[in-house]
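Record type: monomer structure entry
Structure origin: computed from sequence
Chain ID: A
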Amino acid sequence: MKTDATGRLINCLLAAWAVVVFLFIFAPILSTVVFSFNADRFPALPWGGFSLQWYEAIFADATVRRGLANSLVVAGFASMVSTALGFTAAYVDYRYRFFGKAVYMALATLPPTVPVVIMGVAMLSFQGRIGLSGTIPGLVAAHVVVCAPFAMALVRMRLADLDKDLEPAAWNLGCGQWMTLRRIVIPFATPAIAAALLITASVSFDEFMVAWFISGLNETLPVRVLAMLQGQVSPRINAVGALVFAVSIVLVALAQLIAARRLAAGRIKGNSP
């Protein structure tokens, strides 16, 4: 009995600690969302009442609409290219053994470890030399560098569960390498590919520092938020922040849903006779 009581106490303490950590992390985000609907200009309590005026104000602002459109376009293209490159890199790691593979993997996973300021300066210098700085293709290329390692990591984890004997067996049965890739590997990795598309789109949509260095007149939405802050502290910033958070959380939630369905399907197959 004493052991059970101690166990329940520990579980309660852990649950309370989890709630405190959750509130500490998400309190600023939740306050931004709440005050984005506040009728008062200043984010203070008591709440001034429900209003959509700040959302109406940001959608009436041409610069915000353009920033949102740029962010969606860049995120869409960056996620597709990043996922394609990430799948290729993960498959090379899964299938082939070659000299310098450790170096290959280190370079493939390097971008997230580089400080974003250094990355932004490097991108500005490089793209300025080739005429891409300040363009949408330049933003897409920069975000591909940032996002591709995330896609590779997701697909790599999925391919680690693929039996390495399946492809040789298909080859022995007369399937070519491309057909085997198309009929076995890609269908098996489809959940990870879908999750990678969503996660990389979220990373690209939220990315600020590199875009700030190279966007020029083609501002993304996070860069537009900084421009608004430099002008004046406006309650419109809460509305823009809530919008960015909503897009990101939807993308991440969809990726989590896909991963959960994959795990559930795996359990069903594992329990089937």
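Annotation 1: The first helix runs from residue 2 to 35.
Annotation 2: The mean pLDDT is 82.
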